[in-house]
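Researcher: Please generate the 3D structure of the following complex. Treat every line as part of one assembly.
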Amino acid sequence: MADYQAPLRDMRFVLNEVFDAPSLWASLPKVAENVDPDTADAILEEAGKITTGVLAPLNREADEQGCKWNDGEVTTPEGFREAYETITEGGWNGLGGNPEFGGMGMPKTLVAQFEEMMQGANMSFGLAPMLTAGACLALDAHGSQELKEKYLPNMYSGVWSGAMDLTEPHAGTDLGIIRTKAQPNDDGSFDVTGTKIFITWGEHDMAENIIHLVLAKLPDAPKGPKGISLFLVPKFLVNDDGSLGERNSLACGSIEKKMGIKASATCVMNFDGAKGWLVGEENKGLAAMFTMMNYERLGVGIQGLGAAEASLQSAREYANERIQSRSPNGAQQPEKAADPIIVHPDVRRMLMTMKGFVEGGRAFSTYVAQWLDIAKYAEDDEQRKHAEGMVALLTPVAKAFLTDRGLDTTIIGQQVFGGHGFIREWGQEQLVRDCRITQIYEGTNGIQAMDLMGRKVVGSQGKLYELFAEDMAAFIEANSGDQALAPYLEPLAASLERLSDVSEQVIKQAGDNPAAIGAAAVDYLDLFGYTALAYMWAKIAKAAAPKAEGDTSGFYTGKLKAARFYFDRLLPRTVALAEGIRSGGDAMMAPTAEEI
Amino acid sequence: MPEYKAPLRDIKFVMNELLDSEQHYANLEGAEDATPDMVDAIVQEGAKFCEQVLSPLNQVGDREGCTLSEEGVKTPTGFKEAYQQYVEGGWPSMTADPNYGGQGLPHSIGLVISEMVGTSNWSWGMYPGLSHGAINTIEAHGTEEQKQTYLTRLISGEWTGTMCLTEPHCGSDLGTLRSKAEPNDDGSYSITGTKIFISAGEHDMAGNIVHIVLARLPGAPEGTKGISLFIVPKNLPNEDGSAGERNAVSCGSLEHKMGIHGNATCVMNFDGAKGWLIGPENKGLNCMFTFMNTARIGTAIQGLGASELGLQGSLAYAKERLAMRSLSGPKNPDGPADPIIVHPDVRRMLLTQKSVAEGARALIYLAGQQVDIVHSGKTEEERKHADALLGFLTPIAKAFLTEIGYESANLGMQVFGGHGFISEWGMEQNVRDARIGMIYEGTTGIQALDLLGRKILMSQGEALKVFTKQVHLFCKENAEDEQLKEFIEPLAAINKEWGDLTMKIGMTAMKNREEVGAAAVDYLMYSGYAVFAYLWARMAKVAQQKMEEGTSEEMFYNAKIQTARFYFKRMLPRTRGHAEAMLAGADSLLDMPEDAFII
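Model: Done. Output below.
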């Protein structure tokens, strides 16, 4: 297993050369207050050090140890407490947080890079800061001033961590049917009672307090999703002076035995009249959750990306070292017993596929982060609204496509190792197991696809889709005179046309038959994702092309070759996807349950 | 873990209705015992054993794994007893040579049993499964004495076997292996070296373990042409054939793996262990190749099993789990939500698994019949044809089925949502167990090179024509059938395109040999989908006929047609992407300087 190295060179390339993030930051006054290129670079550098030096070395052993549950207490694997302390001291938990309450106010374009490093180095651990950041976002957006003042500073600092308590044994995707109850008390607080499952980092020994954001129903609340409210329920009650008070009546009943992310505690949480406070309005809990959903979903997509990057690093090192068989064109290293396997075309196919997904994915996550920054910080209403539309459209793609391709990538990385890929000590199989959950939680990828196609594309009658198509078309148009880019722009234009045709068709199909959305959704999201990544690779090629001549490092020429590989070998998958979608939904809906 | 139910109805459909096993067995030499009643009884008995004995041990095996101590390797609770029952039931000898205690039944019946064993408990099934390799080797290349000593006991199941090929530095490239065999005066050899990834290399289930070991003789030529094959028993046989003194071979450690925890994957150390040459000197790899196809079909079953088990688990869950309402209005108005099987995307996942599992079954059984004919066909011509067809189908079955079987297992897990990730439901175990199928017994990449390079291009495309001709005839025969048009037309188009693509790649490969490796995996996947298209069209035809004749099982046959339709509409289009990618050429793979990967 290669030691994880933060891919700083590529992150800088994406931020500075592909997207010119410094100009974006300078154009957003609230961002410019907090960050300039030098600060950003120093943050990247430090993030690289801490993730490679502190988090990555714990990853393998922590998977073997897992978390231990004993009478409600959860013990984390060796080294986790110390690592959490280091992360806390560095202020990393509050990197993107609101400066008014102690956050650092960094833009998502930058935070996304830190997240990728953290998730690539140690996904189990990375979930803790990620959940805290999510809870902070919801609290910052919807909590009362009093709640924010009381909880946010300690959460941004990491002294307290956060957890999101949504799922119940019978309700995951369908939160409308949850049963957890909240009874109002005279003092304005509520007594929360119910059982929540799959609560990531719901209990552990790394932070002094754990702040749960819990979905529950008020007495006489309407049925379904419109009767759900959000509550803040701390593990320890907090006194008026901010010190910790008595233990609240909630407890971790058990932790799950899982396929992966074994070093993160997945808890069953029992709330037994636990004291909580309403966050946001009554019965508007789901809506409150949705404001942080875009950030969280991109964050999960980035988990897929991080795992993929880690897998690629190991696979290419192994492919350069492992010697096996001769190149079809004769010995490349005659002094050795065999050639390194990187000479074999099929091994290269695997490595190039990984590179195509990882580096294209990194550009895409940064692209989406850029829209999040504009949506949050732009001062111009129009600009903000436009960006919000892009975020709404692209978020499900980022979540599902980056995790689907993330899993593909880790599986390929495992395959490059041959039999050793199946053995735990080499680390590749752990990446597959860890990555697998990202396709499921935070809305399964099937749900993301329904969100993209149903709520966003069809729901807006194509208006949201148009925003993206126009962005792509403008890029193609603006660069149409550039001969160096012609090999990319031509297939890019064709794939945009394909996606637009299919989009138009699905809008039409959905009008006639609501089931058509579900039948086409997953293939549609894939089609969208492959097209979006082609766009990213064209942008990468544009940034690399002027520097490729005389490039002795191989970095820029490598980018151009990887772009070509993407267009030649990966983009053709869109042809298959489009054909599957066009065939309609009858093939799925005609069989009865018994026939299946 | 889903409780395994042997899919007997579908097994019978493929055996009897699709592949007419009765006629097939009647045409074989010496298969008189394989009467329909007999075959049926064997399958029923096998199903019972797998459902009642093996399936309940599957999760136990995963949880406990194997442990190594001074006393050797201990297998999970219940594994040993299950093996005893298996031996008492006479299962190990079913398809083996009657001259050495076998029952001489056709291999295709053995594959049906292997399917059920493998689906109910793959880790357990590997213990008797590995014996097959040793049995085949000794049967084909052993001396009479070796057969009397080893073969009889392997066939009875008293002893088990292993295949010791891989070494730490070599897996795909066996030409560089280092284990040595020094001749002794008594005609035996002293074997020294380290072998890794030896499945069932050491365990507590049988009285002795017979290792078939690849090693080099002194002065042997370098590379693949200097490798010989040896029998190295764990315990040296006494004069009377019973297991005697311990040989100098031992299990150094067990691997910690992603899955198949119930099977012991051993590092085996040979320290001057006594062994005997089997087959001619330096021809060890050739000897292995004589039954490579059979072994690979055995591994292909893992893809079938993974999709079948995933389907059984997820289908049951999809009917029970309530979440959201159907888009066309409530289907379960009395409940708080509808069962998730009403949702189109859940159906997509279920139907994908169904089309994979049932298509895989058809492919495995079709290949099984070719194995029968190769062994017991009545004419040389029949045997040659079957051998060519089997050679063609094997790499496709091995690689394509394990690849889409793995995809299918992942879908089974996805249907469970978050619960899929939790161990107690068993779906994630199915995924972890299935993953190795794409790696061992020749990785997908190696199978693809075998198919495109060794088989198809080296035969100037003849190997492909053996199959496409059959497809062509089928399409011609049914060209006028209006009902089947939706299947025949796209099948005929794919069949033609398949030949065209092969020609094109052949042409570019003549100019640059790298093109073969660059196109191979896409070519193999394309071929897999094409083979499935043929099988699904044939299954649709059978079902159509039954419906026309009138049947009490309308639902079963209608489901076949629906699944075929799903396959053609939603799965077969994947060939578009593979076709385009394989024609894109090798340049974009090979231009990349190695250093540029590092950045």
